[in-house]
Amino acid sequence: MALADSARAIGAVTSALVKRLGTRTGINVTAGRPETGTGNGQQLNLFLYETSYDPFLKNHPLDEGQKPPLWLVLKYLMTPFDELGDSDTPQAHETLGAGLHALHQPDLLEVDVLDPADAQALSDNPEELQITFDEAPVELLSKLMQGSDESYRLSAAFQVRPVMIASSAPPAYSLLVGVDYTVAPPAPFGDGAVVDVIPSMGASIEEISPTGFELDEEVTIYGTDLHLSGLSVKLGAMELPVTMQQ
């Protein structure tokens, strides 16, 4: 699953909240501006009224060398409706309490129970999605609901963070050979690339004997891992022939 799927993360979070509330409360859940209820039974409405950048992760990349993703905080308003579509009745208040209870325990948003497309959009999110409750003062509700007494409805506010939207561009650092980085997690192409690895820091010279020599004289070089194949010796710009290794 490519990081490009995270472009659908905002919608996937809303879908996850709708599914969680509906499953745990048995109440019809809708998403959109909280204007009127359907009048066809109890209802909870979710309204995404603000997106902001997470200040704690704003410039935090997934890996060093990658462009940091967008780390978002999604702020929602949850509005209850009773069977007749009203929000200021005891039944509506019970509906709101049921919704708060469904969000409160646990306060992590599960993604493994979502539809495949929504789960795919959130699967690369490295942090668990946390639900926290916000204040919902009269000023906020009046502003969001146009300020008229007729449209004012008691609601609860909460947020989900951190929601990641990441670039699908490859990182700036060198990548491993034989690995497909267009999928998540990265996987080898076929059988991958096999490279022999020797547990060594490489060949090193410790002593040259004799320290002075003439042209065509034999020189012995002592050191570490000089028995490895393919070694050559250079003296300045001149490469010396290797006659024996041990």
Question: Could you name the key traits of this structure?
Answer:
246 residues; alpha+beta; STM4215-like; five-stranded mixed β-sheet; two-stranded antiparallel ribbon; 11 strands; 19% helix; rod-shaped
The shape is rod-shaped
List the helices and strands in order: HEEEHHEHEEEEEEE
- The helix content is 10-25%
- CATH fold topology: STM4215-like
The unreliable regions are none
* Biggest beta-sheet profile: 5 strands, mixed
Q: Measured on Cα atoms, how large is the radius of gyration?
A: 32 Å
Number of helices: 4
Structural class computed from helices and strand pairing: alpha+beta
Cα distance, first to last residue? 51 Å
CATH architecture type: 2-Layer Sandwich
- The CATH class, by name, is Alpha Beta
Q: How are the strands of the biggest sheet laid out side by side?
A: 1-2-3-5-4
What is the count of distinct domains?
Answer: 1
Under CATH, the homologous superfamily reads: Phage tail protein-like
Please provide a brief summary of the model.
With about 250 residues, the protein is α+β, with helices and mostly antiparallel strands. It contains 4 helices and 11 strands, in the order αβββααβαβββββββ.
